Task: inverse folding
């Protein structure tokens, strides 16, 4: 994800975007609490010698589906936000996409539960919420046959899904539209798909933040 977002930013404005550094620290299949936020945000860690400006937190994609995991997500975000603010950075929350079949977690109300969890916690701590999951929902509404999830599990994104999510992250963080951006994943994303996904990202972010 961070590679896609960086390349979109570089394609938009190489001189302005190049000085920024992007890093990811993930533990597959783990809740947010498994990550050592004190260590990860310390200046000099992860090969970055300047303080972080923004730290994006993402929970497990099924966190919104039970009272216990929702509560754990909220507690962890509040705790991590205190550390992030102490470091002089801003917290952002990446709203995950709902699952689709064949995922056993897929359900008609999964996106609403996920949206409510991220928005409520984001409002509580004053975090920027990145509406990636809503962009997936809108893309499927407009093009039901587009493949944004992997067929084998219905939870992880395809390269088109990552492209859409990165466009949404870019629009949310940079405050600029991804429409017309020339980054195409080294030719893998067609012009038609790129234009469509960029437009969805832009529309979703505009609608989300206006509301």
Result:
């Amino acid at each position: 994800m961070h590679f896609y977002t960086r390349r979109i930013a570089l394609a938009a404005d190489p001189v302005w975007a190049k000085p920024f550094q992007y890093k990811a620290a993930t533990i597959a299949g783990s809740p947010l609490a498994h990550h050592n936020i004190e260590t990860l945000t310390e200046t000099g860690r992860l090969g970055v010698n300047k303080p972080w400006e923004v730290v994006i937190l993402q929970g497990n994609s099924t966190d919104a589906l039970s009272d216990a995991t929702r509560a754990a997500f909220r507690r962890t975000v509040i705790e991590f936000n205190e550390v992030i603010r102490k470091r002089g950075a801003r917290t952002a929350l990446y709203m995950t996409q709902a699952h689709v079949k064949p995922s056993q977690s897929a359900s008609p109300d999964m996106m609403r539960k996920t949206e409510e969890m991220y928005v409520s916690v984001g409002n509580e701590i004053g975090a920027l919420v990145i509406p990636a999951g809503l962009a997936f929902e809108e893309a499927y509404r407009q093009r039901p046959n587009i493949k944004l999830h992997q067929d084998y599990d219905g939870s992880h994104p395809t390269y088109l899904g990552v492209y859409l999510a990165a466009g949404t992250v870019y629009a949310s963080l940079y405050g600029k539209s991804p429409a017309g951006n020339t980054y195409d994943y080294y030719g893998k994303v067609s012009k038609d798909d790129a234009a469509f996904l960029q437009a969805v990202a832009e529309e979703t972010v505009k609608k989300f933040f206006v509301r």
